[in-house]
Write a structure and sequence with these properties.
- The chain is of the alpha/beta class.
- It folds into two domains: 142 residues, Rossmann fold (3-Layer(aba) Sandwich); 66 residues.
- Helices cover 42% and strands 15% of the residues.
- The chain contains eleven helices and eight strands.
- A six-stranded parallel β-sheet has the order 5-4-1-6-7-8, with helices on both faces. A two-stranded antiparallel sheet has the order 2-3.
- Helix 1 crosses helix 5 and helix 8 packs across helix 9.
- The longest helix is centred in the middle third of the chain and has 15 residues.
- The protein is globular, with a radius of gyration of 17 Å.
Length: 227
């Protein structure tokens, strides 16, 4: 994959504060779940006598669709089946989910965006019922005009789901920006015709995201553009 050309050349022409819609990613962006994601993966690797990964190594290689990444770590998907591995991951992650928290700054940022009159949406590769439950758990569901997850647990990506979101929600691409934490979010933004901002504290390393441009390090870095 060419990581130097995922975003269109005109990604940053319009200041963020001129947008009417923000499409948020969930895991790794609004939700700080890197430590739990790596812990979950390492428990799965340990049961198969495979070497663990560090958070640094994970962020350097993780991507969507997720299946090739698991194959690169030594999972035998032909024998076990991707469906079974996906179910195992979800079960382990949920058992550890009490350890996850919202990304620092999110609780202040979401109401500030709403006061500015900007509509907010969530687009995630997480199964939609699980996504809705987590938004309710953290008490932030009322800030969003729409929530779109997927209908499975296979983490294949979210471009198709994003197109469905644009078809049924009042989101004009030229008035909208996607905020995510992975190279896949850059791909999604390009496929949907959105601008993008990439948060460097998530599931991909700062170095990978900075090659795309328009990366930011803290949620508070967005405030001058919004308000």
């Amino acid at each position: 994959m060419n990581e130097k050309s995922l975003l269109p050349d005109n990604t940053g022409e319009i200041p963020l504060k001129k947008y009417k819609n923000i499409v948020w990613d969930w895991n790794g962006t609004l939700l700080d779940d890197i430590a739990v994601s790596v812990k979950t993966l390492n428990r799965m690797l340990a049961t198969r006598a495979l070497p663990p990964v560090t958070a640094t190594a994970y962020r350097e290689r993780f991507g969507f669709p997720v299946r090739p990444y698991y194959e690169s770590l030594g999972f035998d998907l032909d024998t076990e089946g991707w469906g079974a591995i996906s179910e195992e991951y979800v079960a382990l992650y949920r058992s550890l989910s009490r350890e996850v928290a919202l990304t620092e700054g999110v609780r202040a940022l979401l109401p500030a965006i709403r006061r500015a009159g900007i509509r907010q949406y969530v687009l995630s590769a997480l199964r939609e019922d699980l996504l809705e439950a987590m938004l309710e758990r953290f008490g932030i569901r009322p800030f969003f005009n729409g929530v779109c997850g997927v209908d499975n647990i296979h983490a294949d990506g979210k471009i198709a789901r994003g197109r469905e979101m644009l078809a049924r929600c009042p989101i004009l691409p030229e008035e909208s920006v996607m905020i995510g934490d992975t190279l896949h979010d850059a791909e999604v933004a390009t496929a949907l015709g959105l601008r993008a901002r990439l948060y460097t504290g998530g599931h991909n390393s700062a170095e990978r995201l900075q090659r795309q441009g328009h990366a930011f390090h803290r949620m508070t870095d967005l405030l001058p553009e919004l308000l």
